Amino acid sequence: MGSAVITARAAASFKPVGRSVATARSFVRDTLQGWGFADIVDDAVVLTSELVTNAVIHAGTSADVLCLRTEDGVRVEVSDLYPDRELPVQNSAVSMGSPDREGGRGLQLCAALATRWGVEYTPTHKQVWFQLDLPDRPVGTRAAGPVLPADLLPLTDGRVRVAVVQIDRASAITAWNEDAEELFGYSGEQVIGKPLTDLAAWPHTPGTGTGIAEALQLSRWEGSYGIRATTGRVIPVYASHLRVRDTAGEPSTVCLLVRDHERAVLQTPLRTPNTDTTSSAEGQSADPFEVFIGSPAPDDLDGLLQRTVERARDMLDGDAAFLLLATDDETELEVRASTGLPSARQRFARVPVEAGPGRYGSARMPSVHDDLAAVPGAVPLLGGTGMRSVVTVPLKVEGRLTGSLGVAAESPSRYSNEEALRLQFAADRIALAVESARLGELERLRRGSLSFLVEASDLLAGTLDRDQTLALMAQMTIPTLATWCAVYTIAEPSSDPYLSYVLHEDEERIDGLKALLSKIDPPEPIPTPGARVWTAPAQAAHQAALRTSMRSLGLGEPASATSGVGTTLATASAVGGETVVLPLVARNRVIGMLTLGKPTDDHFRQEILELAEDLSRRAALALDNARLYSERTAISQSLQRSLLPPELPSIDGVEVEVIYRAAGEGNEVGGDFYDLFPIRDGAYGFAIGDVCGTGPEAAAVTGLARHALRLLAREGFGGPAVLERLNSAILDEGARSRFLTLLYGELWPQEDGSAVLKVVCAGHPLPLRLRQDGTVESAAEPQPLLGVMDDLELYEETVTLDPGDVLLCVTDGVTERREGTRMLGDDGLADVLTGCTGLTAGAVAARVMRAVERFASAAPSDDMAILAMRVPEPQQN
């Protein structure tokens, strides 16, 4: 290194495995950015990538990378354990060799990019090193370019507006200048404090690549995306993000945005040749177009592809560029990035590898089309775009076709074989990085898909409510899988599909979307698995937008108002893309359809459709389970309600209040029951009982008991006779019989304002009487319970309630309420009742229930019934 002073060093070792190349790139990038050498990071990463690839892939040994920092630049040394490996050096110059050759490129790049480079040998190691010096730049400027004629300067539409937006660490907007307001229509008051992610239309596949939130956290980022304006239209922008911090150390991001076609204002200039470049093969200089790489991180496939097409377009001075990646079987190419095309409608669209006539139809070879008008359909991607000439080259890794890169122009005969060779050389340089990032994306997508499906299954299994299941289905798909979705359900096999749920990532468009879908016929319920394209929504949206535009121009039928024009156009833009339908099939029956949609001209990628198909199978079963559960619940509740007494009668001179709580989720009736019914003129029967156990079996006995009590009492039997006959009926049930505790009584309101009661307490908690002076006493004696013995000898007791007195009857779910070893008990209930002096029957029942609930923190495990009867005091005049 001569006399250069080393001010810092960083070293790392990498195993002889493929993933080590990406790790080495990250190590060098992070190291140099930390040293503040952003100007030479890209070159250093490219060179390190090639040299480490030579070591760990081609030589098959481990690699040691050492970064040395000086005041003028950086030296990077890559050492391997293969000292005898030959170098492709001829006559002091690096042979370029075959363009398909995988080895030796690291030295070619050293010759092209490094200030100095060399190779050193030891008995056990070979070390390749390169030196990159920082460029000399005038103070106050970042880069300088040549003077250009006026006709070669970038075109702008009048004044160039640069939106300056500042974002805090939580991605919320903290500053919004006048140009931003002019470009996008939002005032500062409307957006400050909101996340930029709410406005950004980021071309991003969930679970893969870098999203807008991640890009805002990078130290630097540069590229294209969209901003949703107030009109609902997405405005393509070119942005430059810079991460900064204030004097207090608080980080934030400054974003500069211009309209995409004015990107020259912000775009980082291409490298210029370094006239001082020297190496062991002196005299060679670098063609600035031979090698290019973007600033995204190595595992950011979307950012890498977008930067690649942008640099390719600029490299050949084209009007548009595009990049396609091959599917796993290499029979189709999927559009993954484009720039300069009229719209983003091609994203994730697929075209066959062998498309079009002649040698120009194959993506496996470089091709040049002088005039697409003469070869219609040769490049399906460019149909209807106005492009006339195009050059395409394959992306290959180890002889396999991994993609295709193309640059197009609006004028014919723009490109020759020379441009094709230059583009092919650039494609060869980027192919390995693209393939590595693509494989990483697939792995993340698979892991993300599994995680997504596991979470979806857990959420769907956690509910048996039909409406909640529908909402979960939609919320899980938006925005992870689609921009909007609609769920159609089919109640019966012969019934028509019904639009049950609609969701859009923009809540303000849900109503418009629902109105649009309600006007078109639903999709056919075809049980064939997989997604199928449904064109009706896009066609309806297009027609609605066309009619609205004509009315607004006064060319169509008159409209009462034009205030809905923006809403209609926004809805059309949101629904106008690709729409797919997936059948919801459960138990060999189509129970509905899941419809997923994209905004205008967008396509679904195949991996997303496969994930949606997996989700639809799980969602269909969950939805059908919810339907079955709802039907059975409705039947159960209907039967249970039939066991409850009808509305309580109004008794002159006596206040009555009942509180009933059945234990167990979904139960309306349990083992506890109550009743109050008229027997004859002036006489009423009342009962409160508890069947052994809870649930449906106990509820069946309560139904028997309640109906038998009414029937026997109205036949004129007294209390003991009624209970003795009920006891026989319970024993007749045989194995289904259950013992029953029951408090039965008959009530006669008196003319003097009191009430006479005759009660029989068969094994039930004793009724409590509250007098006006606050004393509490039992109002009956205990007798044998029912359903145990054949011969019962029961008797009735007479109780007189004076004005202001209360008779409280409860089941043992009240008195046996527990908290640990403590139990409320009869004494605790009496204490609660003592404090109810002067309260109405309703207030007494409510206070008792509140005391029971507060006694323990756990939910009640037993049924509870409370019957309170009170004789009111005479009204004072």
From TrEMBL:
Record-level Gene Ontology MF annotations: phosphatase activity
UniProt cross-references to NCBIfam families, sorted A to Z: sensory_box
Lineage, top ranks: Bacteria, Bacillati, Actinomycetota, Actinomycetes, Kitasatosporales
Keywords: Hydrolase
SMART domains per record: GAF, PAS, PP2C_SIG
GO terms under biological process: regulation of DNA-templated transcription
Residues in PAS domain copies: 164-194
CDD domains, per the entry: HATPase_RsbW-like, PAS
Listed PANTHER family: STAGE II SPORULATION PROTEIN E, STAGE II SPORULATION PROTEIN E-RELATED
SUPFAM superfamilies from the UniProt entry: GAF domain-like, PP2C-like, PYP-like sensor domain (PAS domain)
Protein name: PAS domain S-box-containing protein
InterPro entries associated with the record: Bact_Sigma-Reg, GAF, GAF-like_dom_sf, HATPase_C_sf, HATPase_dom, PAS, PAS-like_dom_sf, PAS_fold
